[in-house]
Design a protein that fits this description.
single chain, nine-stranded mixed beta sheet, about 15% strand, globular
């Protein structure tokens, strides 16, 4: 049973951790939305080459609650999160993508739910597009090898007949719940976490570079008995993909590499070897297809520019 609370929160004992890599102007908007609400904002920069940090230092020159940590190279998302978490001072940590903009009410609501549920270690909010529609990933089930197979081959269409067998892990297609709901996973783009839970579960797995590290952490939270709650009335606008547009194939490579680590780490002893081999084949075929599409599109754009 998820507890509810209606008492307003006057002060948010939250350290916000933003991992930046060439997020551009949206990073300053993200920081601006968070600073008035929280104890501190820590920007961990993975050797950005754009103007994002310069904009922040100019805009927030006299802001004592903002700290910028500059990494000498791109260490990946999980490592940067751990660097920020190690320096955070508040009892609650909000891991927030630089392309997310908080509203005035969403973070207080997430904190309320976390404080009202002692068994909860992690809270996720409602990730939305600019038009207000829900994004995928804010609430989800763990994509086990079988669920991924069901999704890849369209078998989720049979969910209405055999829901337990052909379950679709994309929960955003379901109606929004009326209140906080326990889920298997939320997105690392918007993740409020209790420091005590981190002490119990351990830090982010730094073997992931980008993608799937949030699923890994959610799995480990569950294994330690911590609840993960999705809060439907805590909407946050997510300008998805801002940091990955410049190097899509690089991002896809690490995404699929992360998928393989995730499957091997948690499921290799639960599935026959042939199934895991088929999963690996499917993962890398998918990467090959996506990389080919990106390469063809890029070649087409170059040809178009050459004719101008």
């Amino acid at each position: 049973m998820v507890a509810e609370v209606n008492t307003p929160t006057d002060h948010l004992p939250v350290s916000v951790i933003v991992v930046n890599y060439n997020a551009g102007q949206i990073l300053a908007e993200c920081i601006h939305s968070a600073l008035p609400q929280v104890s501190e904002v820590l920007v961990v920069d993975n050797a950005s080459s754009d103007f994002s940090l310069e904009l922040c230092t100019q805009r927030f020159r006299e802001e004592p609650k903002l700290r910028i940590i500059r990494n000498a190279s791109n260490l990946g998302f999980a490592t940067a999160c751990n660097i920020g978490a190690a320096q955070a001072i508040a009892p609650y940590l909000l891991f927030l993508n630089p392309d997310c903009v908080l509203s005035d009410d969403s973070l207080p609501r997430m904190v309320q739910v976390l404080e009202a549920n002692p068994s909860a270690g992690m809270i996720g909010g409602l990730l939305i597009n600019q038009d207000g529609t829900e994004q995928a990933g804010g609430r989800r089930a763990i994509p086990t090898p079988w669920r991924s197979f069901v999704r890849a081959f369209g078998l989720y269409h049979f969910e209405r007949y055999w829901p337990r067998l052909f379950f679709d892990f994309h929960l955003h297609k379901q109606a929004l719940p009326t209140g906080p709901l326990e889920v298997e996973a939320v997105s690392g783009a918007l993740m409020l976490v209790h420091q005590k839970a981190i002490e119990d579960v351990g830090p982010w797995d730094e073997s992931y570079f980008i993608h799937c590290e949030d699923l890994d952490w959610c799995m480990r939270f569950q294994k330690k008995g911590w609840q993960i709650l999705f809060v439907p009335d805590a909407p946050v606008v997510h300008y998805k993909g801002t940091c990955s547009r410049s190097r899509p194939i690089f991002v896809e490579w690490h995404k699929h590499k992360g998928m393989m680590r995730f499957y091997r780490k948690f499921f290799r002893h639960e599935y026959p070897g042939v199934v895991m081999w088929l999963v690996a084949l499917g993962v890398w075929l998918r990467f090959g297809t996506i990389a080919t599409i990106y390469s063809v599109r890029r070649a087409g754009r170059l040809v178009g520019l050459g004719r101008e």
